[in-house]
Design brief:
The complex is a heterodimer. By secondary structure, chain A is of the alpha+beta class. Chain A contains twelve helices and twelve strands. At the A-B interface, α1, α9, α10 and α12 of A face α2 and α3 of B.
């Protein structure tokens, strides 16, 4: 039997019961559409979150004071935590492969300028902060590289702060009061928008040592080092650990590489995508049961035809192939319709709610269609085997 | 061509073994026109099913065209059915959703005959059975006689050695029945063996050789004097 004939025969029987085939195919279509829709949203979310996190670059290693204990013992047992200092940050410049180093301290403070005041997020940062985090200065300059422990009172404004306090006028050279200290405005950052709910434009950047003073802290909150693409995260991390352990005499800090964090986050998000996909899979399963039901009915109804085919010289496996072919064709067609629905609805939702990230990888579509075919195959096997094993005489007697 | 040696066919009905065929010894020649008559339950259809390889003897040997076909597996038997045997049924057994042409094409399609040759044979068959106009009609759009003609065309599409006809006119009126018989007998004149199972003595007598069965045994085997 040629494949084209198989296709012709199976299509003819599916078309002979149009309504029934349509409804059964619909069951699979709904299942596939649900899987595609849910995984598209899951994957969209995945991509969205990763882009949000990665917009500051992926080759970043963050160092925070204090050791994250994997077991329950108090840090007090092993001694107190030494804060990370600006000097620690400077020392990390000697780690091979490191490109930029910046320390960060952050807090809320009231700022005043031009007779207006505003509560904003104040970042105390090193001079290389913009380079390290892919940020650009729109007007003026970034904080100058100078002795990081005795810096001058300069401030770089976030785009929103500039608009609120200086309007459309030129803020450069103007003065800003933060916590009773007068800072001179030397630059304005490019607008960055919100990231995960934080408004990065409602911020001001001052030198880190002045940040420590402002918030009355002894150590910085985080030191970030970056490295070029051709350097491995592991080697940089090892270098960082070697220097910090030497300086602190113990392992009292936590190193988080963006790359590894993204791996963990990515796998968590994958699990979420998989879980919502599996939820959609339940309806796909129900669709499979529908195919099983219809094929079982078809075998009973067409017993006479099966007997005839056997009398005309059809081998058992040909009968099996015919019925299996019907089941698979039905589910594959339903699956294709489901793909169109699912992607259509996903894109429609994205147009209606632009905030909802939606992404359908081709791989998912292929996988969904493949699972539709497999479900058709599994659902079809039992009825098709029954058809193939019918006693031809008994079958012919049924009319 | 068809040779039965000591063939038994028994069925289990409840706890009892019922013999549908008892020790059948029979030889049918190539191109022979044979009728099998007998009361219901005499084993006519069982014999026909055995000849058509739809059933297996419980014991005994069946040789077809010189080959012992008793012990062949399903696929080999299917191949022999496809190549050497044609069936014509009382209830036509056409596939309702397929056109007349497609019904005729079915055995060729199952046997994997190339599409070009198939098309040629089907066109020829439609023509010789006067069905060219009806090629695209489905069975429910055909008369009884036309349906049986499609069935006969289908049965001969693979050029079988033997045609097995179980009450081929049982579902037709007199005139159409006669027409169908004429077609079948034409095939005999072309060298195809015809084995006809019937209740109708008038029909049975037309065959050159007449078998009579009672209780699973052949009780008489007569030939018409030519």
């Amino acid at each position: 039997m040629f494949f084209s004939d198989l296709f012709r025969l199976t299509t003819s029987s599916l078309l002979a019961y149009r309504m029934r085939s349509f409804l059964t195919g619909l069951g699979i279509a709904i299942g596939i559409a649900a899987v595609i829709l849910l995984t598209s949203i899951g994957e969209g979310l995945h991509q969205f979150v990763l882009t949000e996190f990665n917009q500051f670059g992926t080759n970043i290693i963050g160092i925070q004071p204090g050791k994250t204990q994997t077991h329950g013992a108090s840090v007090g047992v092993f001694g107190s935590v030494r804060p990370l200092s600006i000097e620690d940050a400077e020392a990390l410049r000697h780690v091979p492969g490191v490109e930029y180093v910046t320390s960060v301290v952050q807090g809320n403070a009231e700022i005043r300028a031009n007779g207006k005041s505003r509560r904003v997020t104040v970042y105390g940062v090193g001079a290389e902060f913009p380079q390290a985090f892919n940020l650009a200065v729109q007007v003026g300059n970034s904080l100058p590289a100078e002795d990081p422990t005795h810096s001058r009172p300069f401030v770089v404004l976030g785009a929103k702060v500039r608009n609120e306090l200086f309007g459309t006028g030129n803020p450069l050279g103007g003065y800003l009061h933060i916590g009773g200290v007068r800072y001179r405005v030397i630059g304005v950052m490019e607008p960055k928008g919100q990231v995960l709910g934080f408004d990065l434009d409602d911020t001001v950047f001052i030198p880190v040592d002045r940040g420590l003073e402002l918030f009355n802290r002894t150590g910085v909150m985080e030191i970030d080092v970056t490295y070029p693409d051709n350097v491995s995260a592991d080697s940089v991390e090892r270098g960082v650990r070697r220097i910090l352990t030497a300086r602190h005499g113990q392992d009292d800090y936590t190193v988080i590489s963006q790359e590894k964090a993204m791996e963990v986050l990515g796998s968590v998000l994958n699990v979420i995508t998989f879980a919502v996909g599996a939820l959609g899979g339940i309806s796909l399963l129900v669709g499979g049961v529908g195919i099983l039901t219809i094929m079982t009915m078809a075998v009973s109804e067409r017993t006479g035809e099966i007997g005839l085919l056997r009398a005309l010289g059809a081998k058992e496996h040909q009968v099996l192939t015919l019925f299996l072919g019907e089941a698979i064709l039905l589910s594959a067609a339903g699956g294709l319709a489901g793909l169109v629905f699912g992607i259509g609805i996903a894109q429609g939702l994205h147009i209606l709610f632009p905030a909802l990230p939606v992404y359908t990888p081709v791989f998912f579509a292929v996988l969904a269609e493949a699972s539709a075919v497999v479900i058709g195959l599994i659902a079809g096997v039992m009825p098709a085997r029954r058809a193939a094993r019918l006693d031809p005489i008994e079958a012919l007697r049924t009319e | 061509m068809i040779e039965f040696t000591g063939v038994w066919r028994t069925f289990k009905v409840g706890d009892q073994e019922v013999a549908a065929l008892r020790d059948i010894n029979l030889e049918l020649l190539a191109g022979e026109y044979v009728s099998i008559m007998g009361p219901s339950g005499s084993g006519k259809s069982t014999l026909l099913n055995l000849i058509g390889l739809l059933d297996r003897p419980t014991s005994g040997i069946y040789r077809l065209d010189g080959q012992d076909v008793t012990t062949l597996d399903d696929a080999e038997q299917a191949r022999i059915r496809s190549e050497k045997i044609g069936f014509v049924f009382q209830f036509f057994h056409l596939v309702p959703r397929l056109s007349a042409a497609m019904n005729i094409e079915l055995p060729l399609l199952l046997a994997g005959v190339a599409p070009d040759e198939r098309k040629q044979r089907v066109t020829q068959l439609l023509q010789s059975y006067g069905l060219s106009e009806r090629a695209d009609h489905r069975p429910d759009q055909l008369s009884g006689g036309q349906r049986q003609r499609v069935a006969i065309a289908r049965a001969t599409s693979m050029h079988p050695l033997v045609l097995l006809a179980d009450e081929p006119t049982g579902n037709l009126d007199q005139a159409t029945g006669k027409e169908v018989m004429t077609l079948l007998e034409q095939l005999v004149s072309q060298g195809v063996a015809l084995i006809l199972v019937t209740h109708d003595p008038g029909l049975g007598k037309r065959a050159t050789r007449q078998l009579r069965m009672v209780d699973g045994q052949i009780v008489s085997d007569t030939r018409n004097e030519a």
